[in-house]
Every structure is written in C-alpha cells, then in structure tokens.
Design goal:
Distance between the termini: 17 Å
Structural class: mainly alpha
Oligomer: single chain
CATH architecture: Orthogonal Bundle
Largest sheet: 2 strands, antiparallel
Order of helices and strands: HHHEEH
Helix content: 55-70%
Shape: globular
CATH class: Mainly Alpha
CATH topology: Arc Repressor Mutant, subunit A
Radius of gyration: 12 Å
Number of strands: 2
Strand order of the largest sheet: 1-2
C-alpha cells in the first residue's frame, strides 16, 4: 500500500490524514495488532511508536476502533461508513 501525504498548512490537517490512513490500514487488514499498526505508521510516516500508541488510544476512546478477543484492533461498525 503506497501512502502519500500532500503538502498541508497546519498540524491538525496532517494529524487527521495520518489517523485516517491508520484506520484504513486497520480496515484493509481486517484487524491489526498494536505492533502491526505502529510498524505501518513508522515505515510510512516516521512516527514514533509512542505517538502511534496515542493515536490508537484516542481512536479507541472516540469509538472508532475496539480490541477484539484475539488482541487485534478492528474498526467499529459505527465508524466503517466514514472510510468509504
């Protein structure tokens, strides 16, 4: 999956594009472990694992992702409509 970031003028727009890419990655994989997500974000955006962990935590609090019984983060049904 090739990910490109367009030039943005503010940090919030950049953060939003990264979070949406992370959520698309989780959806495309039909679930991903924390380490999988952190590796993806590091390789594509150079983010530290801690930053990605914070993104995951915030998305969980927002109800966008949940942790499945097998330890993989999955997109909630409520949020799937925003990824289309």
């Amino acid at each position: 999956m090739k990910v490109k970031e367009s030039r943005v003028t503010d940090g919030a727009t950049l953060r939003h594009s990264r979070i949406m890419a992370m959520l698309r990655f989780i959806a495309d994989c039909e679930g991903a472990t924390t380490k999988d997500i952190q590796s993806f974000m590091f390789l594509h955006y150079g983010l530290k694992f801690r930053t990605t962990a914070e993104y995951i935590h915030e998305c969980h609090l927002a109800g966008s992702i949940v942790l499945s019984q097998d330890g993989r983060w999955v997109i909630t049904d409520k949020f799937k409509k925003y990824l289309r």
